[in-house]
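Escalation from tier 1.

The customer reports that the assembly of two entities below gives different structure tokens on two consecutive runs. Tier 1 could not reproduce it. I'm attaching the input and our single run for tier 2 to review.
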Amino acid sequence: MNKQRSKDYRKQIDQALATPKLQDALHKFGDAFLVSREKAFGGLDFEQLRGRIAEMKTGVREHHGELMEQFIANAEAAGAIVYQARDAADANRYIADLARRKKATLGVKSKSMVSEEIHLNKALEKAGTRALETDLGEWIVQLAGQRPSHMVMPAIHMFKEEVAELFSKETGRQEPAEIEHLVEVARRQLRESYFQAEIGITGANVAIAETGGIALVTNEGNARLASTLPKVHVALIGIEKLVPTLEDAARVVQILPKNATGQLLTSYVTWIRGAVPCGDEEKELHFVLLDNGRSSLAESTQCRDALNCIRCGACANVCPVYQTVGGHVFGHIYIGAIGIILTAFYHGLDNAAELVKACIGCRSCVSVCPANIDLEEIILHLRETVGDEEGIGAGKALVFRKVMQNRKLFHTMIKAASMLQKPVTRGERTIRHLPLFFSPLTEWRTLPAIADTALRDAFKAKAQQVEKPRYRVALFGGCANDFLYPELGLDLIEVMNALDVEVFYPQEQNCCGIPAIYSGEKETAVELAKQNIDAMLAGHPDYVLTTCPTCAMALKHNFVEHLKDNPAWAKKAEKLSSITVDAASFVLNQLDGAGIFADLAEKEKITYHDSCHLKRGVGVWQEPRRLIKESGHDLVEMDHADRCCGFGGSYSLTSHPDISRKILADKVHDIEASGATCVAMDCPGCMMQIRGGLEKAEVPVRAQHTIELLAAALRNKPTEK
Amino acid sequence: MMNQSLIELFSEKAVAVGAEVISCTSIAEAATFVAGKVDGPLLVPTFPSGCRSGLETVLRDAGLDVLNAFSSETAGRADGGLTGTNFAIADTGSLVLESTAEDIRLATTLPPKQFALLDPAKIVADGLAAVDPMRRLHQRDARNYIAYITGPSRTADIERVLTIGVHGPKELFILLVPGFSSDFLEM
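Tier 1 run:
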């Protein structure tokens, strides 16, 4: 681990957290984005559209060589000059040489993230050419001497007063901080430059093999001017922008603005092929095709889906971490989830290492990605790579390798800890204050105490009354259910018994391994997968139930992934995956059991919090809501029901408690505003976080697991006889 | 989709993004409308349907100061630019302008007011339906500069507030003139 780097990064986080105005703006933006995005996709099937993009882009990657040849041949036939640049330095040298040859004093640029990626402006300045950004947001950021904090909206972190100040310096007049006026200032101030510039520089949103042309997707009209007025046009193109045909280009153009800004289409889509007329001559058109790490990314089987990205920026818009700290902190040049991955390949793992750890793993980015990239999965892989390269820290490594992999030792230590905590819990179930350097952890949320009797022990004493069980199911407790909330497991037994299902608890089960994965410790995760597969399959259960969606994701998905190339384990992992179900879905889908709870509950106003891994990991969100409603409760939706609560396992405890705290505060606010007296959820991790947050904020709302509510409803059942 | 419903959808979407759509029965009626909007020179580059219909004369008769030969410098001083339209896309309210000739680009990028004559018979349903005429344009010409234009120039770069007319036209007027041109490949 690079301690100085981590320390510096924490400093940046602290600064961002001390800027509530920015957070407020990004939260509002995130809300507005979702509304306009949904409207833009009205009547269209997003899943189908993004499936097609993913399929097309994957095909491009597989046939990249031949498609690139076709693109280049067609571009050259139309009079374009094509240069293939290996890396940033190569591209910069080519463009700077060109500027020198043209004796260019001024280059006008329209927005290009690739030019940010390679720091083209600096290279041009060195060649004596001033590079002027003409996109409004880029110009603002350039005047401020900053870098974009968002890929689509570069100056989203700035406010009109700051813009007015920058513009006033530029015009030498006092410009009022009125947005319409400031936009007009930009128009006037920049207009002349298109005429003066010897070179116009643009990016490209697609490069079309069929035609040898590019398309630019823009709103302001500056790209049209920059590609029309100067004699030379340089288009800087990342080689992943390649698409085979005009239909493919049309599909990218269809989905990109809708997913980027919620527009049906941007004001301008500009299709350029070849050297078109310019004054009395022909335009000199250069296509600079940039690799700069893209080929290595294509080689990485775990990460290469990132090349399918069409740069809409949506992964940042919906990200709770981005909304909390902004793109300057949660990004390098490229920002947000995709930014983390691209940074690792284009700017080096060192620049990505802190970002990789700042992802909370809520998968909200995955749900909106128009190229269907499993960003979280790739980020986790990178975390593992960082862990391999730099180590995950001696303390963590010891815990994972020496303790967790040895179940008996792990569980003995937890039990010992439950004894040691007595002085701070004073016999209560929650820890309100931790002493010494642990104290920041309980400043903003209480923590649950480790239970005196773990579920695995309490289980044996719980009598089950099922005469002729429909099913025998094994409960995968998971650490939180087992050691923090054993009563939840006991409630599950009651619910299952009432539905004629017998539950058993395989004693050999261990941690699901997700905490290890999230810490970049894959070796431990694989070992735990094996232990758990053996443990859970040993008793030949009909199903394996979970009360924790993170565990469900591990059993259903991660174990299979870890062991797919291991012939001794792959089949067993798949078997376990196929019989694993979260408890709420099991009640509804396998048992059709909603009826037995009908109107038994003491009616209460309940709001539901979607746990990230249940909704976006396992795809379950309707089932618990239906059960809550059918049992007689009044279900009210809170705002942002499916936004992360900020838990993220060790994220909230060790990696980034300060970000976690802010995300939790947002959640507590939404819960309180719903007017409910109870918030239901299906994840003990969320329960720990939300219960702790509500308690500390003294908000009189209970946090309960859906299974607990169902068990409570059953207890209202009039006894027979 | 029937052409009438395509026209309605196109108009609805174009208006939604800030364009004005005006139904005209003739070129003369369109010219009168333009004359009421423009204060200063009007750039009118040469394009086939315009030549065929004697557009320039009609515009001059309406009292407009028509510039049909211009450079980038003179173009910068005009108040409006007027062109035909190759075809339009209904579901996004977009115009497709084959703008390889530089005059077309100057007339549609520099002046604050943009006017486009569109024969309502030339509207396709969506971006994918636009591919066929796009491909034919690419097959016909070796080099292309084709613009999809959807509303006036816009930005939301300051505090995400939508603001019209940052670098390109501040106003877009779409003049629907039936029988003006039925060929998707010609402007």
